[in-house]
Structures are given as C-alpha cells and as structure tokens.
Sequence to fold (221 residues):
Amino acid sequence: MRQKVTNKKLINWSRYTKEHSGATWFPEEILQKYAKGRILDIGCGGGRHLVCIKNFKEKYGIDLSPLAIEKAKKNFPSCKFTVSSAYNLPHRSDFFNLVYSIDTIEHLKHPQKMLAEVKRVLKTNGILIIQTPNYPIKRIYDFINWLNQKKGWRKTWRDDPTHFSKFSYLRLRNLLDKYFKIIEIKPRNILLENRIKPIKKLKNTFLGRIIGQKIIIVCQK
Fold:
C-alpha cells in the first residue's frame, strides 16, 4: 500500500518496512500499566509491542504495510491484524479500552484525522498513548547517533523524509488537548542520563520534556 509524498512521489510502505526492520523501542511497563479490555496498536509493524502486553486476549493491530501485516499474522496468530489506514479504522465506535501509536503520528500529513478516529473507536474513559520524535531537539540526537554509526544506530544524519508532521512537545500536547484529557507526559531518553545521574531527575520537569529525544503522552477520552 502506498501513500503520497508529493504529486510525483509515493511511499511504498512495504519497502519502508524492509529498510526499517527493527521495531521502535517503547517502555513496555507503560503499555502494561494502561492495558485493559480490547487493545489496538496503530502502526503495529510486525506486532512485537502487542505481544509484550500480557494477559489480554483481544489485541488488534493495523498498518499500511501489507508486508508488515503478513509478518505479524505469521508470528503472532493470537492477535488480529489488518492492513488499514489510521484515517479510517476498520472497527466500530466505542470498541477499544486502549489505543496506542508508537512513532506513527509523525508519518501522517493529517494527524488530526487519526485522532478523530481514535476518539471514535475508544470507549468512554478509554486511554490513548502516543510516542513521537521530539522536534527540533530530535535532530541533535540524529546527528550524535550518526557520528556513532559504527554501532549501526543511523546510516545518515538527514531527517526521515516520511516525517510530515514534526511535533515538538508543546505542539503535540496542544493538539492532543483538543481531543482528549491529558493525564501523563514524559520524555523518553535524555542525552547522558545514563552517565550523569542528576539528568534523570529532569524527566519529570518542563525542561526534560523539551530536551528529550522522544515524547510520550497518555490521554483519556
């Protein structure tokens, strides 16, 4: 399945899946903390995050890449995977208790359309979890990781051309606030936090949210 980049170029999401085969890391304890009832992963890729959520039978995933969905169905047959757009979720209203989307919203030209769909399929008091790169500080992390390319972190210092919606912490918070009640915000990964212990304390501060590589926001319908 393809999505327009410009009038002349298309994204082949199956090719993108091959070139970005590693699943994005996410704190599994956050997913487990809010897991309840029916669960949906938007932009599920190969389905690894769904499988990490224990003791839940009704787990669903959607992705634009047929290759990713084929892989997910093969590896995790207990979950229900569908090739679908985040703009038109193939589920009835008030269906899910938890919806999450890890490093997906930045790939959307119209993220508000996804949020409207999420609000539709979430039950009252249902939870949405979003993680996305934190611009503009994200570009500094890109450059640092590129310098460490011997470890295989990044092959180029350039930004991902499929990132159409580049969110800062404040921009993402303000957008989500239009659709949901925000209940938790935290940065993921602050430079040198594992080497300089006091830096970890910044994670619960406004400054930490500004300088974190990625931002995680938990919302409630």
